[in-house]
Specification:
CATH superfamily of the largest domain in chain A: RNA polymerase sigma factor, region 2, helix turn helix motif
Structural class of chain B: alpha/beta
Order of helices and strands of chain A: HHHHHHHHH
Oligomer: heterodimer
Helix content of chain B: 40-55%
CATH topology of the largest domain in chain A: Rna Polymerase Sigma Factor, Chain: A
Number of strands of chain A: 0
Number of helices of chain A: 9
Number of domains of chain A: 2
Strand content of chain B: 15-25%
Largest interface: A-B, 21 and 16 residues
Radius of gyration of chain B: 34 Å
Strand content of chain A: under 5%
Number of helices of chain B: 8
Distance between the termini of chain A: 31 Å
CATH architecture of the largest domain in chain A: Orthogonal Bundle
Number of strands of chain B: 7
Distance between the termini of chain B: 49 Å
Largest sheet of chain A: none
Chain lengths: 185, 266
């Protein structure tokens, strides 16, 4: 059992502190992951809250098949997909709002990803298509293995391997355009 | 961007609102389904009564009844009057006396005798037809009993240890909590109430326990005293038949701490 699982167990037993710990530990990573779907850090923040509200209200059962983080990200993904189904058309964002959003995203990147190289990589990933962004985010920044990614994205391991390969190729070409060095990829 | 404390507050506030909305929705749904069920029962009763009348009318039109009296019982007077007009004006008509019966009266009286037999069977039919309808009418008033949960099988076997509750405090055992999560408000939970005072168990047979049981009964809880044992060693237990709400919003007295658990918990 990792900390998330034990905190969740505490929460189910009536200790509100359990959910507080979960929010503290996972909120930033979840926002960046959900941002891969919606490309708007504010919306991603709302979706992060929706994910935790779903956890508190529905109290879904956690089976220890995968880690708590994998399970939480799966719920987050479902929340994001529900959101995208309801809001197919993108809302227009003003230039000022866009700057504000980018600024806040940069702040979150700095606090969560910390390393400069990771931050640059994360920014380069913005240009990729949504599925590539998600798979690379889980692989590079959350250190999920292929089985965990497959569980979150509801794909087979083989599909995930292919997806990662294509995503890396796409990222490589983006980095080439920017003149990045990418030998670590 | 919100800091994590703001996020926590937002999440908890929204969760409380969402839970409130869900409960309201469930109550509305329950109310709606109760109304539909009641309406369905009323319609079923109505159709049943109508059907009973119709089948009575069909028998009349087939001229099965020997007497007008029988027909009146079933409310099919008009039909029968036509059939039995002979009593008023055509009595003794040979048309209705097959086999050359000279008077015809005997024949009518025979008919009447048969009719009396039929009368009995009709009364039985009526009784059979209308009895269930009355029962169904009553069932609208009487709510079906709630399902009772008296034990819970944990997926993973575990023995839990608990600290004795302080005076004025109460808690539910972990299996009971799990059962309440699974079954919710729709069932009754049959639980053992263990009373604690100064960290020690108050014997259920004691006078204090009895008084506390009476206090709880006075507050509207269903308190049952049950004895279990092999004949030689019999123990008494205070049992509550309570809903989830009654257990989670328990009206604890200041004198005792309370623990609720299923009887068969290890």
């Amino acid at each position: 059992m990792d900390n998330g699982a034990s905190s969740y167990r505490r929460f189910l037993d009536g200790d509100e502190g359990g959910i507080v710990s979960i929010i503290r530990d996972y909120k930033d990573g979840l926002i960046l992951y959900l941002n891969g779907f919606v490309q708007n850090i504010h919306t991603a923040e709302d979706l992060m809250e929706d994910t935790f509200v779903r956890l508190v209200v529905k109290k879904p059962k956690f089976s220890a098949r995968y880690s708590f983080k994998t399970w939480l990200y799966t719920i987050g993904r479902n929340v994001a997909i529900d959101y995208l189904r309801r809001n197919v058309r993108m809302l227009p964002v003003s230039h000022e709002d866009l700057q504000k959003v980018e600024c806040e995203e940069a702040g979150l990147e700095a606090s969560y990803l910390k390393e400069e190289q990771k931050i640059l990589l994360h920014r380069a990933m913005r240009k990729l298509k949504s599925e590539y962004r998600q798979v690379l985010y889980l692989s590079f920044f959350e250190d999920f293995d292929n089985a965990q990614i497959a569980a979150v994205m509801k794909k087979s391991k083989r599909q995930v391997e292919n997806l990662i390969y294509r995503a890396k190729m796409s990222l490589k070409s983006e980095l080439d355009k920017e003149g990045f060095v990418y030998e670590r990829l | 961007m919100k800091d994590y404390e703001e996020v926590v507050q937002d999440v908890l506030r929204r969760s409380v609102e969402e839970i409130g909305r869900n409960k309201k929705r469930q109550r509305m749904l329950l109310r709606g389904s109760c109304m539909i069920a009641a309406l369905g029962i009323i319609i079923a009763v109505g159709v049943g009564m109508r059907f009973g009348r119709d089948s009575g009318g069909k028998e009349n039109s087939a001229g099965q009844f020997a007497t007008q009296e029988d027909a009146e019982i079933l409310g099919a007077k008009d039909v029968v009057e036509g059939d039995f007009g002979m009593e008023g004006g055509r009595g003794g008509n040979t048309d209705i006396v097959p086999g050359g019966n000279p008077s015809g009266y005997d024949m009518i009286s025979d008919e009447r005798t048969d009719g009396e037999g039929k009368m009995e069977s009709i009364k039985e039919d009526l009784h059979e037809n209308f009895e269930p309808a009355q029962v169904e009418e009553n069932s609208i008033i009487t709510m079906p009993p709630m399902k009772m949960i008296s034990s819970y099988q944990e997926k993973e076997k575990a023995v839990y240890c608990y600290a004795a509750p302080k005076e004025g405090e109460f808690f539910c055992s972990t299996p009971l909590k799990h059962a309440m999560e699974e079954y919710g408000e729709e069932v009754l939970y049959k639980v053992v109430v263990q009373l604690f005072c100064d960290g020690s168990v108050v014997e259920p047979e004691s006078e204090e326990a009895k008084l506390e049981g009476e206090r709880l009964a006075g507050l509207g809880y269903t308190v049952v005293w049950e004895s279990y044992g092999d004949g030689e060693e019999v123990s008494q237990y205070i049992m509550l038949h309570a809903t989830k709400k009654q257990l989670t919003k328990f009206d604890a007295g200041n004198q005792y701490g309370y623990m609720f658990r299923f009887f068969d918990e290890p």
